[in-house]
Design a protein that fits this description.
The structure is a homodimer.
Chain A: H1 7-14, H2 18-25, H3 33-46, H4 52-59, E1 63-70, H5 77-83, H6 90-94, E2 97-104, H7 109-122, E3 126-129, H8 134-147, E4 151-155, E5 165-168, H9 171-183, E6 191-196, H10 208-221, E7 227-232, H11 237-250, E8 256-259, H12 268-273, E9 281-284, H13 288-296, E10 301-304, H14 307-324, E11 332-334, E12 338-340
Parallel strand pairs in A: 1-2, 1-3, 3-4, 4-5, 5-11, 6-7, 6-8, 8-9, 9-10
Antiparallel strand pairs in A: 10-12
Helix pairs in contact in A: 1-2, 1-3, 5-14, 7-8, 9-10
Chain A binds a DNA duplex (30 and 30 nucleotides) through helix 2 and helix 4.
DNA sequence: AAAATTTCCGTGCACGGTAACGGAAAATCA
DNA sequence: TGATTTTCCGTTACCGTGCACGGAAATTTT
């Protein structure tokens, strides 16, 4: 059933041998132009697709996929992404696909560059890439294209036309959704945005678009609602605590709190000490610590994009493209924005 | 890489031929007890796993999976489930898995029984089953076990110990979650539950547990909030409209509305005619009509379990078990309860 | 004890594709 | 023109399993 057309059929119809047919299939030369075209024509007509099993059986090599991510500390967003590698379906593994993880320091462009050269040396059959640095990524992508190595973006992407697929979250919309969750659709008092202070010469703020979506929602639905910002240092718990304390001393009328990165858990100590009935606290990403906060009831809801799923789907898409020659149905796959509350988080 | 152990290795180590080894592997007799045990021992020791590619190549058959669902009218829940069949990964198909759909009338046990015999005649290698009738399902499952055909439940399940896996939604918790969505965590006025009238001798109400979860939440979080019920006939739009009309004439203070089955869209005509600021309307399942209502803003949120994903995951699990001999990591996979609002529905 | 069964097992081909090997034909060189 | 190199292609031996066929050995029948 399926594709009855075999390499032998083509050999017979072209009057050549399967050895020659195999040579044109794999473009390993030593074929006259005339024969080459004859074979290609018949392949086209019959819609020949090679039998994956036979190919794997004979060749045995399978394929190697490199996954390039920022190195994830324990409990971080990127560790979650990393765990997606282990979640690819058994059927993909059965197809002879192997994955190899390469990490880089998300704060050091030169570390990323270093990792890229390592990847190129490893010469994988495909690359899954979470890009953070524009310049360096453009260069890397050029190198990959030159070598004919297909690549898939996760989390964010470049404007490049040549990537095979992209799995990520629509940032602007996630901010919009977040605002809806925070306000519950009702008009409310003022809102506090807690942000992480970052050096200006560092990379651009990845949550910029998200914040924009949030602001737009508020302007449309609750124009009377005031929005304030404070900045904290993620490595200074005490400072964070004090920042919140002094802000709320000055603005006791502010009720709801939101953060646009995955660090909402940093607020837990202060929140736990200052419970307010009706306060809504919304953050992003299902990190273990965030989920714990959700369960405690300190955080109202989280908006999750499941980076692990992004990675595993990316690997699967890449594998299907390489091994089966099937392009992904859609190039840009914006993934679910999951709304997590304490009542459904157990099932994610 | 992987399993270097082949059938030839075993043949050599046992001093037998691969023909004999193959015979014990497939239990097709004609092997002396002594040889049988010798082979089994070596297989055990070396942890032999057959090469899927070679097997598929030689045998060619692949495997046949029967999917048994209630017949889904256009736009219905079960049609959504049906669509999951088309969504199994290309890699699973590449493994030589073919699926065949069998449907039955969800209101007629005898129709289910009829379908079951058809399935048994087709003698598939595995069965995905959405069971509605307890008695008949128990019998069917016994037949399957007798024939050694593995089966996976979706949507709901029997207490049977022998199913391979189950993909479904935790009903009680979904009701709990629903109540949280409806109230938004705030204390609110009274709530209306719209239910579908059904004959008592018909099957039991599949949403009973869900309702129980809802009620429990309300008792715990908003004991002062009154909950009323009305009943409608899904096939009588006019009657539905009038029922809502007369209820709300008598109880204008009731604001929020909930339905526990997938038919919240039946209320759209009335809701569209009677917009109330701050009213929350929550229903279940991402049917096209429900999603349309969500987009219009008539329905506040939906709780979705994506029956299509349940079906495709079930097929994949079954395929992996049959073809690769890999049991699913967890027997009971309670699937996500997705909270859908107009702001994230586009990404589901 | 010879013949007829039955039980058990080895051999060999097929599945579709890969790739090394070697040789014929064509092109280039002397 | 003969020798040499290049270009091109057919042959062949696998890869690991499935399975049909036929035959040796063990068992039962005459």
């Amino acid at each position: 059933m399926e594709n009855k057309v075999t390499i032998n059929d083509i050999a017979r119809l072209t009057g050549l041998s399967k050895g020659t047919v195999d040579r044109v299939l794999h473009k390993r030369g030593e074929v006259s132009k005339k024969s080459y075209e004859k074979v290609m024509k018949v392949i086209e007509e019959l819609g020949y697709k090679p039998n994956v099993f036979a190919s794997l059986l004979a060749g045995g090599k399978g394929c190697q996929i490199a996954v390039v991510l920022p190195s994830g500390e324990k409990g971080s967003y990127w560790e979650l992404a990393e765990s997606g590698i282990a979640k690819v379906g058994a059927d993909v593994e059965a197809l002879g696909v192997r994955t190899q993880l390469f990490t880089y320091d998300q704060y050091k462009p030169e570390s990323f560059h270093q990792t890229c050269t390592e990847v190129l040396e490893a010469a994988p059959d495909g690359v899954v890439l979470a890009p953070l640095f524009k310049e360096e990524t453009s260069q890397f992508v050029l190198d990959l294209e030159e070598k004919g190595i297909p690549y898939v973006f996760v989390d964010s992407r470049l404007e490049s036309e040549h990537y095979l697929a992209y799995f990520g979250m629509p940032m602007y919309q996630s901010g919009y959704l977040c605002a809806d969750q925070l306000t519950g659709g009702f008009a409310i008092g003022s809102v506090l945005i807690v942000r992480v202070r970052r050096d200006k010469d560092q990379q651009a703020d990845p949550t910029k678009n998200r914040r924009a979506g949030f602001i737009d929602y508020m302007l449309e639905h609750s124009p009377e609602c005031s929005v304030s910002n404070i900045f904290i240092d993620p490595n200074d718990p005490e400072g964070t605590y004090n920042a919140l304390d002094s802000y709320f001393k000055a603005h006791p009328e502010t009720r709801h709190i939101v953060m646009f990165n995955s660090r909402i858990h940093l607020l837990v100590p202060w929140l736990a000490d200052h419970p307010v009935k009706g306060r809504r606290v919304v953050g992003f990403d299902n990190l273990p610590e965030n989920i714990a906060a959700l369960r405690r009831g300190v955080v109202t809801s989280l908006i999750g994009q499941r980076p692990d799923v992004q990675v595993s789907r990316a690997i699967e898409a890449l594998a299907e493209a390489i091994v089966l020659g099937q392009l992904p149905p859609q190039k840009d796959a914006f993934m679910h924005m999951d709304i997590l509350t304490r009542y459904n988080v157990d099932y994610y």
